[in-house]
Amino acid sequence: MATIEGTSLQLFLTAAKSSDKESILTILQVLGDLLSVGTDRRIRYMISKGGSEALLQTLVDTARSASPDYDVLLPLFRLLAKVGLRDKKFGQKALELEALDVTLILARKNLSHSQNLLHCLWALRVFASSVTTGAMLGINGAMELLFKVITPYTQKRTRIIRAAAEVLAALLKSKSNSRRAVNRGYVASLLRLHLDWHHRDAADAYVRIRRALLLCLRHIANLRSGREAFLAARGMEILFSSAQNCLDDRRLEPVISVMIQILRQCYPRSPLPLVTSSSAYAFPVPGSVPPEPPCALTEEDFEDDADEEVDQDSDSEDTKEQDDDLETDVNKLSSKPGLDRPEEELRQYEAMCLELSCSLEELESKPGDNLNFEETQDAEHYHIPPVTSPKQHYLTKDQSSWGQEREDMVQTSLLSMVKMGRSTMHPASKRGPGMNAYQNMQSNGLGIDSSGREAPDSQASLKQDAWDIDVISCPVMSASLSSSARPTETAEVDKLLQTHPKHIPFHDPHLYMAKARRTRSVADFKRMAFPDLWGHRPPPCAQSMLERKCGVQRIKIFEDVRRLIEPSDVINKVVFSLDESVLWKLMCVTSQCLVWEYDLLVNTDVNSSQHQQWFYFRVSGTRAAVPYRFNIINCEKPNSQFNYGMQPTVYSVKEALLGRPTWIRMGYEICYYKNHYRQRTAATGGASEKCFYTLTFVVTFPHNEDACYLAYHYPYTYTALLTHLDTLERSVNPKQVYFRQDVLCQTLGGNSCPLVTITAMPESNSADHLEQFRQRPYQVITARVHPGESNASWVMKGALEFLVSSDPVARLLRENFIFKIIPMLNPDGVINGNHRCSLKGEDLNRQWLSPSARLQPTIYHAKGLLYYLSSVGRSPRVFCDFHGHSQKKNVFLYGCSIKETLWQAESSVGTSNLLEDIGYRTLPKILDKLAPAFTMSSCSFLVEKSRASTARVVVWREMGVSKSYTMESSYCGCNQGPYQGLPEMTKNGRSLPSGMGLQFGTSELEEMGAMFCLSLLILELKSVSCSRQLLTQATTLLNAVEEALDHHLQRFLPKTLSFFLFFRFFFQINK
Ligand SMILES: [Zn+2]
């Protein structure tokens, strides 16, 4: 084929030179035929052989003759249009060969000759696809010519109008052409044309003309002067009103999407309605310069920001990580830096590792006991059921009716939940958007209180109580610690707890109140949030992801535009402000259609001017069945899982009093998009501006006069952790479980950072047993260095409860390891509602390289403890830091590998001489098999430069822990494995859409924590260093299971089955 083409091309070139009309026509015919069939390969071949130049030269020669021959020109134009589309340098070639000029001249001559003009326009369209050529055409008067063709409105010659409008749109990609268009007043004319076509094209027959006209406006709007001209010509009003009646028209989609782009682009940029961009709170960091006075925000000059924006409806969810961030310096990767502090300092950590030195007697009187709080009068309220499996706490007799499904799940051991077992999840039925999940639960027949009784007319009983819901929903803390008199509000809570008895495992409201009094915050908060005090119990059903309604984002954008053009609809009233002195503002926006709408501004992290993402607020005096719309208008991240099925979490105080103390996913019409707020950033000296994003959602509250709490994710407070640790400690049998709480250090804010040690007590006082006890390998787990990642705390909660439980796996784990756990590395951040930082305004997970004892005490001492373990030859088997991930789904690990990093970076450094234990992949592989929420496919083992100072990389490099990980849990949920929401019949017989996925509830996160612990055991069983004792214990367990299977086949089936699965798994992986 190439030969034929080559031949015909040469023929053509010869013919073109000879100017023999007949020959040219024949060749054009042959070329046209050749290129109209087959693949692009032919055209590319022709281009590579100088075909474009030959055609353009022929055009110029023919056009310049005294009487241009249109018999030749028309087929030539058609061929040019075809070839030009494939030739990237076509515009440049046309410019050099002067084909632009001749085409323009021909077009001018043929204004009244449709056929000829149309062909010229086709050629101009391909010429204009290069911006430089487009600019040249503009200089030569192409725009005036095109404008003459498209104005005034007429439905005659629509093919020509379409081609001309498309050429014009292409020309306006050039900024100089756009500027010219603005100066000549084309914006107003284009708007008029848009209206003419919009109104008169009732049958939508000319969508492409209408789109091309709008594209012209869209390109002009890239210029600031273009946007000004558009606004002056009332463009916002015109596009807004013309779009009103056709938003749902599928055929007009190409038109509407451009309209939206123009409206977004032209919406006047404005600074956030805040006096300062810094946090409402400042914390005086000892020894550092006081934070600069907040810089005032002024009306900024928003210069051309031609940010091309795509409608996020079509955005792809995955963001590619950049490879140039990879560490390719082998020295940095493989060398071990020295100690960052004097060696003698490490001795202080001996006191935190008493298990290494103490006798049994000393162990039994744990120093951690001193940490218990003086408010022991609260202890009598506390009831811990006898320790079985922690999950079985759900099953105390009185509570058995709370959700049949959960009961099924918790009756079996953790092992039954491994992936190869059945999925234990029962997704909630799909519900209409307006219906909230509480109603859904009730409709599932679950309107049952915690005591197992039906709550027949609970509304009435609530009224009888006549509680002031506002007061009880946020009890005021007593300021004084020594005061024995309780404030009236806490007394109210006492009364409430008597009339609404409740048993939430490992939670005690009275203990919570006592702990909260000792918690120190920057703003000196005096109020507690009811949900944290009262407690949370997972909902009876897992909740599926919210199906995104098509076009929800554009509806929200149109509503924003309406606020701009109909400002009288907006009640611009501040309904709540955190601190009047900085004009912290929250606007109430109520529109005429009685939608209750609020704009919210989230405070930045303390001592910072960024990290607005986490939110947790209360709405009181609610009205039932009214759709409340909330817009959080100063979010920072460019995308969010809120665009992919995630809902915020809501807790209703009335529901809690009715026996459903539950955070659930709620809200609909959820969407996250870039808004019109901009701010100069101090970091860049005001050179660039920062964009903001709106998270919008609508919530319908379940009750009148209720107080409801809304949060980014299931909250888990510092006080909740302290309460949890104490109740856990009280729950264990001290003869069997060694559970010690130490204080790792005091934080900047004056709070203590707990360190927990869990292992089994030595079997006896004998030297052998004590020796075994001391020689157990360590496992170190940390969490919540990022305060906004409350999911990490729920995973940690699950791990802690599992580790102290009576599950045989947990017992084996305790008997074979010592767990050192720092469950909250950033207590101050959590207490003060930060999303990312410490009180110093720093990301603590970027401080591990050289932390300071004074400024980053928790990191300094966490690292110190690890140094200490390493110095006594007891580096942990595994180090893992739990985190939350806002962009991805599922749970996954990040680890460290030199070889994978070098390979990925395509580094020239040879890796064959590098020794690397590939054991770092074993743990994630095990988790992939075990944990329903976990996926290997999102794991990564690359060492990035930007992560050099994270816990994972520093513990790997400096402590030589090859299995050093970050575990990321999605804020959203799962789209793989058993939780991806397989089509499953729900109670009311409806099935879920396949593959929609489930949002994480706290149960799934806690389960993940337990699974993580189980994986540590299997990792050990698989390792060559696994002790004979552990292997023996595992075999004993297997024999016991077999016996149980023989004798109690029926009764214990679920549990024994789970062991079988476990051991089958264990032996499989040992093959
Ligand atoms: Zn994190």
TrEMBL record:
<feature type="region of interest" description="Disordered">
    <location>
        <begin position="424"/>
        <end position="460"/>
    </location>
</feature>
<dbReference type="GO" id="GO:0004181">
    <property type="term" value="F:metallocarboxypeptidase activity"/>
</dbReference>
<dbReference type="InterPro" id="IPR033852">
    <property type="entry name" value="CBPC1/4"/>
</dbReference>
<dbReference type="InterPro" id="IPR016024">
    <property type="entry name" value="ARM-type_fold"/>
</dbReference>
<dbReference type="GO" id="GO:0008270">
    <property type="term" value="F:zinc ion binding"/>
</dbReference>
<dbReference type="Pfam" id="PF25571">
    <property type="entry name" value="TPR_CCP1_N"/>
</dbReference>
<feature type="compositionally biased region" description="Acidic residues">
    <location>
        <begin position="298"/>
        <end position="328"/>
    </location>
</feature>
<feature type="domain" description="Peptidase M14">
    <location>
        <begin position="714"/>
        <end position="1020"/>
    </location>
</feature>
<dbReference type="Pfam" id="PF18027">
    <property type="entry name" value="Pepdidase_M14_N"/>
</dbReference>
<dbReference type="Pfam" id="PF00246">
    <property type="entry name" value="Peptidase_M14"/>
</dbReference>
<dbReference type="GO" id="GO:0006508">
    <property type="term" value="P:proteolysis"/>
</dbReference>
<keyword id="KW-0378">Hydrolase</keyword>
<dbReference type="GO" id="GO:0005829">
    <property type="term" value="C:cytosol"/>
</dbReference>
<keyword id="KW-0645">Protease</keyword>
<feature type="active site" description="Proton donor/acceptor">
    <location>
        <position position="968"/>
    </location>
</feature>
<keyword id="KW-0963">Cytoplasm</keyword>
<dbReference type="InterPro" id="IPR000834">
    <property type="entry name" value="Peptidase_M14"/>
</dbReference>
<keyword id="KW-0862">Zinc</keyword>
<keyword id="KW-0479">Metal-binding</keyword>
<dbReference type="InterPro" id="IPR050821">
    <property type="entry name" value="Cytosolic_carboxypeptidase"/>
</dbReference>
<protein>
    <recommendedName>
        <fullName>tubulin-glutamate carboxypeptidase</fullName>
        <ecNumber>3.4.17.24</ecNumber>
    </recommendedName>
</protein>
<comment type="similarity">
    <text>Belongs to the peptidase M14 family.</text>
</comment>
<feature type="region of interest" description="Disordered">
    <location>
        <begin position="285"/>
        <end position="343"/>
    </location>
</feature>
<keyword id="KW-0482">Metalloprotease</keyword>
<dbReference type="InterPro" id="IPR011989">
    <property type="entry name" value="ARM-like"/>
</dbReference>
<dbReference type="InterPro" id="IPR040626">
    <property type="entry name" value="Pepdidase_M14_N"/>
</dbReference>
<keyword id="KW-0121">Carboxypeptidase</keyword>
